[in-house]
Amino acid sequence: MVPGRVSAGDARGGGARDDDARRDAAADVGARAAALIEPYKRRTWELVGAGPGRRLLDVGCGGGADTLQLAQHVGVEGLVAGVDPDRAALDAARRRAVAAGLATRTLHATADAAYLPFVDDAFDGARCDRVVQHLTDAPAAVAELRRTTRPGGRVVLAESDHGSFSLHVRDRAAAARLGEHLFARHLVDAWAGRRLRGLLLAGGLHDVAAEAHPLVITDVALFRAVVDWDGNRGRLLDDGVAGEGELRALEDELAELDAAGAFWCSLLVVVASGVVPGTAP
Q: Would you say the C-alpha torsion 175, 26, 67, 108 has a positive or negative sign?
C-alpha cells in the first residue's frame, strides 16, 4: 500500500473486509465438503453405468445436484429422472436444470421411494444415495428400484454407517454419545450402511457387492460444517446430551488438536450394488 493513500479495502471498512473473509472461508469449507464426498459419489455413477444414451433413475434427488451430474454423462440421447417427496427441492432442481442447459435430459417428479411413478423396466440403472436411512420400509423401496430397472441393469445404494463415526478426543464415551445424538436422533436407521448388501440380496438382486468408502476430516472447520455443529449445539444442550461446561471443554480440546495438526474424525459410507436378474432386451 502506498503511504498517504487509502486503499479500496480500507475505504470499505473493517466490517466489510470481515464479511468478505467469512464468505471466502465458507466457500472454502463448502468446496472441501464437496470434495470429501465426491469419490464415493463418482463410484455410484460408475456402477449405475452413467454413459451416453442411458436412462437412469436417481431416487431421493433433492435439489438435483447428482441428477445434473448424471445428465452430463448420458448426453443428448439419454435421460435422468430424479424423484423426491420434497416439492420445494424439486422446484430448485428444475431451475438448476434449466440454468445448466440440461432440462431436456432431466425429469423431476414428486414420489415416494416405495411408490415410483414409472412402468416396469423403464431405466437402464437406478441409484439411491443416503435415502435408506430415512425410510420406514426399505425393502419396499428396493423392490421398486428393481421393478423399474430393466433386466441386466444395476441398482446402486449408498449410505452412511453412522455407527462407524469416530472422533479423536480423550473422553471416548462422550464422543460416542455425541455421534449417536448428532445422527441417530434425526434418522430412522443411522446404521443403514451395513444393511445395504442384505437388502439387495433379500430383494432378489444378483451379483451383489458392497464396499466401504472412508470420509476423513482432519480440521475443525470442516468438521463443524459437515455435522452442522452450530445448528446442533443448542439441541445437544436442550436434550441433556451434554452441559455447557462439557461442550466448552470439548470445543477447547478440538481446537487444541486442530492447532497441533492432530484433529481426526471419520465415517464410513457404504456403496452396494446388484444386477436385476433376467435377460436384457
A: positive
Class of domain 15-48+112-275 (CATH, top level):
alpha beta
Specify the long-range contacts of residues 144-147, CB closer than 8 Å, at least 24 apart.
144/113, 144/114, 144/115, 144/116, 145/57, 145/59, 145/113, 145/116, 145/203, 146/203, 146/204, 146/205, 146/276, 147/116, 147/120
pTM for the model? 0.88
Residues whose CB is less than 8 angstroms from the CB of residue 76 and which lie 6 or more positions away in sequence, other chains included: 104, 105
Length of the chain: 281
C-alpha 207/C-alpha 209 separation (Å) is 6
Contact 58, 49 (CB under 8 A): no
Digit-coded pLDDT (tens) for 18-58: 566 667 667 788 899 999 999 999 999 999 999 999 999 99
